[in-house]
Amino acid sequence: MPARLLVKQHSAVVDRPADQLSELRGEHPCWLDISNPQSEEFDLVAKELELHPLAVEDARHGHQRPKIDQYETHYFIVFYALEAPSPGVVDYHEVSIFVAHNAIVTVHEGDFSARRLVEKRFVEGHLPTSGLLLHALLDTMVDQYFEVVDQFGERIELLEQFVAEETGPNLHRAHAPLRELFLVKRELLQLRKTIAPERDVLQVLVRGDIRELREPGKRAYFQDVYDHILRVTDEIDTFRELTSNVIDAYLAAASNRLNEVMKVLTSIATVLLVLTVVTGFFGQNWSFIPYGSLPLFWISMGVTGLIAVALVTYFHRRGWL
């Protein structure tokens, strides 16, 4: 998809080619969206807006940590849009945002739903200034974080329920959910590493350090986005702790189950040990033991059986069997 230049003119928004940026810049709020950082149009825009080479390089190469950098003619923001097309799958869309005088340039790979939603609002005339446009971009991306995090909460709840139901004799069947829990914990860590640094970006916007966005009453808008980021990070930390608790509960249940098995095996071994002592005594090659005596045979069998019953009864009363 080629670069698109959306320009606010009076009460309408017109779609112009990117090479007309020099003619339109300064008259009306401009939003230039570039879906291919390697395109020649990006070079044209970088030259026209005098974008710093380091910022352009970061936008081209990607894989940047969320940040906000100040240059002489513009500000450079790195933010992330998240989408969860299916349970257990999170798509990370890195968005580079250049904030210049009366112009905002967004650079990203491909497309994502937050951009489409903001474009619809911009075309409808709900975002008349650069500050409101930037707020709409950040706010829409952050609002979608809640949908992604909620899916993690549902996964953890299902896994917790499964592990709780399988803490009995069939505990060995819960190995697959245990692997899933470790996977969820790792994904939550990656999610937090992506979202947490964005708080620093929003703090700069809340302080009003960007001169192009110093519009009366607009700091409250970014404060609202900052509050949402704090809520999202708190939820992620909560789910990470919950995941750790579920893993600990599983390991504790497995340990208890192992203790139960060892207790039963030890009791059985004790019974067999006593029976081995009795049979070993009568198996000694002493001349005074009448090996051909049938009454002695039944007596030894009776003693062996009584000892076994007595031990099993004792272990059962103690709760060992």
Short account of what is shown:
With 321 residues, the protein is of the alpha+beta class.
Order of helices and strands: EEHEHHEEEEHHHHHH
Please give the count of helices: 9
C-alpha termini separation = 71 Å
The average pLDDT is 81
- Side by side, the strands of the main sheet go 2-1-3-7-6-5-4
Structural class, please?
A: alpha+beta
Give the DSSP E fraction (strand runs of 2 or more residues).
Answer: 15-25%
* CA radius of gyration: 35 Å
Low-confidence stretches: 9-14
Main sheet?
A: 7 strands, mixed
Q: Helicity range of the residues? A: 55-70%
Global geometry:
rod-shaped
Number of strands: 7
Task: Name a few traits of the molecule.
321 residues, alpha+beta, seven-stranded mixed β-sheet, 9 helices, 15% strand, rod-shaped
